[in-house]
Amino acid sequence: MNRREWPLWEVFIRSRNGLDHKHCGSLHAPDARLALQNARDVYTRRMEGTSIWVVRADHIVASDPDAKPELFDPAADKIYRHPTFYQLPEDVDHM
Amino acid sequence: MIRSADGAIDSNPDMTPHVEYLLRIGDSVLVLGQRLSEWCGHAPVLEEDIALANIALDLIGQSRLLLTHAGTVEGQGRDEDAMAFLRPEHAFRNVTLVELPNGDFGRTVVRGFLFFALLRPLWDALLTSQDPELAAIAAKARKESAYHVQHMADWVVRLGDGTEESHARAQRALDELWPYTAEWFDAHVVDEAIASAGIGVRWSALREAWQQQVMPILTEATLVPPAPTPFRSEGLHGRHSEHMGHLLAQMQYLQRSYPGARW
Question: Could you say which of A17, A45, B102, B255 has the lowest number of CB atoms within 10 Å?
Fold first, then answer.
């Protein structure tokens, strides 16, 4: 039997105003509208969110895991990219 | 139950109109909550399983508030559990539609849509009830019902305007279930007493709001309601279908076998 599954959607929830949407999981749904409803039912049952994004999983472009050495390793020894060499006034201590 | 000379059916003399009006809504959401909970673990997909269980729990939550309040208004010391689990079939005032078996997913969706489209304008009208407890329950429940009707409506459109198979099943469900909506809008002595006391709206006055919600969705879903017939279900009068006894037997079994049992 040719079983056609619904597309996969990635779900992002913003837990409070001012915070970012965070990826929290995925689900299947036939279309965007029902993906939002399913996300509401599956991921915000305990007041986890104030806003939901859903994105078709196949619309996400991901980096190649095999390309990790050339993408990320070169950053390892460049400590001057971290803003840790400035003296901050105490008022902005927690930047 | 007394049928008067003009054919109208009088309400149960043991029940005040206020209690009966609360039980109509409270029993309807309780029984539909029980029916929807039967889907738990059986829905077509996991996401819909959770959605239906969420809706079932919303409904049971609404019924707890309404049955508790009905018990208080009645003043005979009955709490929500006594109302839900220890009343006999003929004391229930739910609409017949909600006690019918779920059938397939399409039938469950069509039934839910038709009923939630009634609840939504009902809650809106009850926001201004002279019964402050009922108004507060309406304020909480109307947000839930708004989501329920939207979720069901979205499915009605997708099934009705879906494949040949899903359309045929949705249309069959509509043909079978539609006649059970007729009893909602008939004149009823309880409505008259409640409306003149400012406690609630006559259900017959909700017909237009109900149709305004239902018809555009059915059109979008390419579904056609059947022509009106003289058939009347009488759940609102305490006369239920053959399915109600089985539903209550399952729902009430624990409290009747082990009275006062607690989790």
Answer: A17
Count how many domains chain B has.
1
Q: Is A37 on the interface with B (CB under 8 A)?
A: yes
Is A29 in contact with A6 (CB distance < 8 Å)?
Answer: yes
Residue with tokens 């004149």: B187
Of all residues in chain A, the one with the smallest CA distance to B57 is: A45
Is the complex ipTM higher than 0.85? no
Can you read off the two tokens belonging to residue B23? 């039980």
Shortest distance between the Cα of B187 and any Cα of chain A, in A, equals 37
Architecture of domain A8-63: Roll (3.10)
Measure in Å the smallest separation between the Cα of B251 and chain A Cα atoms: 25
Residue percentage of chain B with pLDDT more than 70: 95
Domain with B24, as residue range(s), is: 16-225+237-257
- CB-nearest to B54 from A27, A34, A45 is A45
pLDDT digits (tens, 9 = 90+) for B229-240: 999 999 999 999
Contact (CB<8Å) B154/A33: yes
- Decide: B99 and B243 in contact? Cβ < 8 Å: yes
Task: Assess if residue B26 is contained within a domain.
Answer: yes
What is the residue type of B85?
F
Three-class secondary structure of residue A61 per DSSP: coil
pLDDT band at B6 (very low <50, low <70, confident <90, very high): very low
pLDDT in tens, A1-49: 456 789 999 999 999 888 999 999 999 999 999 999 999 999 998 888 9
Q: What is the pLDDT of residues B68-108, one digit of tens each?
A: 999 999 999 999 999 999 999 999 999 999 999 999 999 99
